[in-house]
Design goal:
mainly beta; 48% strand; globular
């Protein structure tokens, strides 16, 4: 069972045809973003395109990606628990005017539609 990374309104859905490999969730200012499962942080850093980004490896060859964060609280190799706060949703990255979270779910290198597994 997955924990929701953040409660909010889905403003853009998964669409592999347009290479939008996740969902976008509208956020309020300073809204927490949480790990959906127990895991280990693979990457925690800043990119010009996506702002602060965290990637978490989970059992069963699952990886979750959290983009457009305004800040992150976990570093690489840190163990996290489901529901633990990873960072704060923000307006970081190119073309981002409103705070939101872009969330991706991957299994063995294949993007999955998070809406099939998680209630937002």
């Amino acid at each position: 069972h997955f924990y929701s990374p953040m409660r909010g309104l889905l403003v853009d859905g998964f669409d592999a045809n347009t290479q939008h490999y996740g969902v976008d969730i509208a956020a309020t200012n300073d809204q927490n973003v949480c790990a959906v499962l127990d895991g280990t942080v693979l990457m925690s850093g800043y990119t010009a395109t996506h702002g602060y980004v965290i990637m978490v490896q989970h059992v069963g060859n699952l990886v979750t990606v959290y983009k457009h964060l305004s800040s992150v609280f976990k570093s690489e190799s840190t163990k996290v628990k489901a529901g633990e706060v990873l960072g704060i949703a923000g307006k970081q990255g190119e073309k981002t005017k409103q705070p939101y979270l872009h969330f991706e779910l991957w299994h063995k290198g294949t993007a999955l539609d998070p809406r099939q597994y998680i209630s937002f």
